[in-house]
């Protein structure tokens, strides 16, 4: 997607967009890492707490701990789903951006073609004008014109 030529740390919209994209990518990767770690840790804790024990007090504490860990697990999974949705939107909108770039490129190509056509038409008009003047000159100096006027 990078339209810049080379890795010379240039300025302008392309370099700024590349820097912003890199920063966003790092933030998204950090979110993914954090959310996956949270899912794994909470699932591990749920499995560890799920052991059956005899004292009723401990069972209620373990049940509360499992509920808390399950809630955290659901939150982390929800965060991952939101991240996937955000990535899909980014892919869609970057697709529109590349489509816009392509349209702008085609517009520039057509503008160049229009200029080329206009120059060609101007040259043809000049040639036609010169030919017409030459024909007029021959007509007005011809002997037949003089005989027709009389």
Automatic annotation (TrEMBL):
<dbReference type="InterPro" id="IPR009332">
    <property type="entry name" value="Med22"/>
</dbReference>
<keyword id="KW-0539">Nucleus</keyword>
<dbReference type="GO" id="GO:0016592">
    <property type="term" value="C:mediator complex"/>
</dbReference>
<dbReference type="GO" id="GO:0003712">
    <property type="term" value="F:transcription coregulator activity"/>
</dbReference>
<keyword id="KW-0805">Transcription regulation</keyword>
<dbReference type="Pfam" id="PF06179">
    <property type="entry name" value="Med22"/>
</dbReference>
<dbReference type="GO" id="GO:0006357">
    <property type="term" value="P:regulation of transcription by RNA polymerase II"/>
</dbReference>
<protein>
    <submittedName>
        <fullName>Mediator of RNA polymerase II transcription subunit 22</fullName>
    </submittedName>
</protein>
<keyword id="KW-0804">Transcription</keyword>
């Amino acid at each position: 997607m990078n339209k810049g030529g080379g890795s010379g740390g240039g300025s302008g919209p392309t370099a700024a967009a590349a820097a912003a994209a890199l920063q966003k990518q790092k933030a998204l990767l950090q979110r993914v890492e954090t959310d996956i770690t949270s899912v794994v840790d909470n699932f591990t804790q749920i499995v560890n707490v799920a052991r059956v024990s005899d004292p009723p007090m401990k069972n209620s504490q373990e049940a509360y701990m499992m509920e808390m860990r399950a809630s955290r697990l659901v939150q982390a999974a929800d965060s991952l789903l939101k991240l996937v949705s955000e990535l899909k939107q980014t892919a869609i909108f970057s697709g529109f951006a590349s489509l816009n770039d392509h349209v702008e490129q085609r517009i520039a190509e057509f503008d160049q073609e229009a200029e080329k056509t206009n120059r060609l038409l101007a040259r043809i008009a000049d040639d036609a004008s010169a030919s017409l003047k030459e024909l007029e000159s021959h007509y007005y100096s011809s002997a037949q014109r003089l005989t027709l006027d009389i």
